[in-house]
Design brief:
This protein is of the alpha+beta class. Helix content is 57%, strand content 7%. The chain folds into four domains: 129 residues, no CATH class; 111 residues, Butyryl-Coa Dehydrogenase, subunit A, domain 1; 144 residues, Butyryl-CoA Dehydrogenase, subunit A, domain 2 (Beta Barrel), CATH 2.40.110.10; 329 residues, Butyryl-CoA Dehydrogenase, subunit A, domain 3, CATH 1.20.140.
Amino acid sequence: MSISAIKNKSYSPGLMSILPLFYVGWADGVLSPGEAQKIRLKLAELDFLSEQDKTTAMLWSDPSQPPTDETYQHWNAIIQEYCNSDWADKNSLIDLGITLAKNCEESEDPTYWANDKTIAALHDLQSCMGIANIEVQRHLTQQNEVDTVADFDIKEMTKALDKKYTDYKAKIKTLLSYPSFKLQTIADKEEYRDQILAWTKALAEQGLGALAYAPEYGGEGSMEKYAALFDSMGYHDLSLAIKFGVQFGLFGGSINWLGTQYHHDKYLKDTGSLDLLGCFAMTETGHGSNVRGLQTTATYDSDTKELIIHTPTEADGKEYIGNAMHSTMASVFAQLIVDGENHGVHAILVPLRDAQHQNLPGIRIEDCGYKLGLNGVDNGRIWFTQVRVPKANLLNRFGDINDQGQYTSPIANPSKRFFTMLGTLVGGRVCVPRAGLSAAKTGLAIAIKHSLKRRQFELKAGETETILLDYPSHQRRLMPLLAKSYAVSFGLDYLTDRFINRSESDIREIESLAAGMKSYATWFTTEALQECREACGGKGYLAENRLSQLKADTEIFTTFEGDNTVLMLLVSKGLLSNFSKEFHDDGFVAVLRMLGNQFSTLILEQNPYTKRKSESEHLLSGQFQLAAFKYREQKLLYSVSQRMRGLIKDKMSSSDAFLRCQTHLLELANAFVERTILEQFISQTKLVGDAATRSALKQVGRLYALHTIESHKDFYLETEYMSPTKTKAIRRLVDQLCSQVRNQAEALVDSFAIPDEILSAPIAIHS
């Protein structure tokens, strides 16, 4: 549209002054009925609007009649005309509105629009409309630079995160802050491995390696403390955390949970003190996450009462085994064959090296070499050629060979036995995401602290450059991730509590929960660290600022302890079955029938508050947010069960139907985890005693919930659970929450209680 056309369809100076606010208000979101009422009351107070102007402005603020495309294009043309001329030195919507009013043909007194009363009135209107403004944010931030005071006590927030282990975690972080644990970049893998081994030994000497073992073996019998220790280590060096976990959690854990008193008495004390170095040899090159399909065999020789460990082919070798180069023993998972019958996967302790650290006969070990990250961990490959070990080396809690050479087990069903055995080792999936989350928190602390120091681009010539975190785009990058780190923390606490207090009846449910939480949390770690690196620009690429190392070290978290995609499919399978037994065709059809009966009424008759209701009070309520999360999970569960039922009715096998629906099933698993996390965020926040801390957590939780809903808006729109009006309002609220959380961001990352000696990054701790 030409300038002449604009002048032919111009507005009064008063309307021109508020036009930019309405342009952005309708472009960026939607005016809900409640907000429209507030805006209309404010418009009625504006003495620079004529009665005719107010009538027009009331129409502009009518949520039932958004601007037409023609009107919106007209507004855009007016603004573009002035942006190309007098807008060069303006940096707010108020400035733009005043410029439009002053330059309007009908303006009789251009100076009128520069007075304080008019400007204040326009700011009040902008506030009613909930429109963010970089000028306003910048003004507030400059005040905070002088007097930065959090709305909550940081120590209270740390207690809310760490709960009863706040002091214990602080003790571990203090230990890791000692000069002997000073973080450093070591390029040579052998030197790096030696350093990690020395640190692991130092922690073992403090009694930390045996924490989860019984007191008679040097421990405290506390899985809770072990978990707290592990996520504290995640702030430090991830190679140390993983080496520690392999030695004491996986190798020692297999002895502790799969062995009996003979094995405990013989091996646990030396394992906890690091006098016996061991590895956990489960994964095979050709079989990856398919533990049931492992090909290494352990064949019982009744004449010698020995087990013969053998790798049938090159592809059946144990792959990516942590601690392989330092270990003298391995906990080897193999198919147990007794009297010609395969009894499934069992664990056997197999010596690897002699006192001179030379490979024993029949043992071949190769170094995996340099990796993307975690080069302080000595990963290797292991093959066995007819290696004989005593029958007593079988970890026999769930399966044994008696003196008559017969296989015995307290669990008759092979499938149940297999899952029970693996269930005892789910602790790895509990602890790995905790360390990963600590790495993500470290990255967020670095990126946020940097963005509160770093300035870039002045908005007006001669002014101080703007702090990075005052840019709405930067807030959008980091604030939702900060909120999600808190949410995931509460989710992992719930998982840890469930695992520690597990019973035989709920171990399958906990295993499924662990698979989902591990996947969701480690995917989040990868996402967060990538964004933190980018948000720090070139500084984030420097090794000294740790983000590159944190990013490289945690990449593998998405595929070890189980590939995340495979784990999420296990989660969805568990959701579909709702039983603690293995799938089979008849049972599977019954499951689908049950789901159809159970959820058809619930889903199809479920009525949201109203799909168009978009008032802030409604959208910010935990009731609405949790209802939206539950709806997504249940709708996906119902729809995928119906789809699979249809496929099976068409004579497709249940396994093929499952494959056909994999992408849908992944969405279901994701929805289940997100609903669980939000439930825990809400319930655990209610338990926080300090009112200011509880209030801050509610704000963070709202950002997590609404940002998550926003990320799934395609689902909500497609299912007509929400209207475009509502999803637009949610988007605008997310922007507002990002701005609000930004003002607490430094205090929120300080609540992670990461000592400067561990945080280490110069961009975060140097002025």
